[in-house]
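Please review this one.

:::
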Amino acid sequence: MSEPCHRQGDEIGIQRDYWNREADAFKRIYSRNKPAFSAWLDKVFRRDMFQRFEFTIGNCQPIAGRTFLDVGCGSGLYVIELARKGAATVVGIDIAADMLALCRQFAERENVQDRCTFAVSDLLQYSPDAPFDVTIGIGLFDYISDPLPVIAKMRQVTTDKVVLSFPRLWTWRAPVRRARLAVRGCPVYFFTKRRICDLMRQAGFERHTITRVGKLHCVVGVVGRE
């Protein structure tokens, strides 16, 4: 969720600094121990974050016994859930070391650390020992100015499918979010369905689906044969 892999200028350094600063705040977004008012705000303004979680886990099926890569894994929400559901191995990579510290704590707390591996890396610099069945990139492309090299690398290291999310351009939230994060030193990017289609095809995903989930586009790109 915090893994800008393609460097343009100092993009990757800016993102690393931002997500190291925001690690604890990001973790609290998914906390179940919140005051009632905070929980209500989440349901109203962050509903699609929870909807994309359900979309992603549903489209990762079957999970048991398979291998997964989470690019920009953030605080580890998806990594731990996949491990809970029986994944053989889940690797989470992120450029923010503070995020990965949260991941390791989370994995130990849930007793799934034997199936979870974490690495400080961006995807373009990452060389796995073997390809993964499924690669996910959720909340990742919000922060990458040029997604194509990242999506192409995802296809390269994946044997079955990828599950991705992109924030939609034409929503009321887009300009508000862009302005809010700009003040905090974090560029954010938005996408049309047409641009996503072009990116997926250029990356080699002739078979892909795009589903509108709240203010997001959620994508499944198929690598393996049907």
Summary: The chain has a mean pLDDT of 86. The two ends are 29 Å apart (CA to CA). Residues 11-222 form a domain with the Rossmann fold fold (CATH 3.40.50.150).
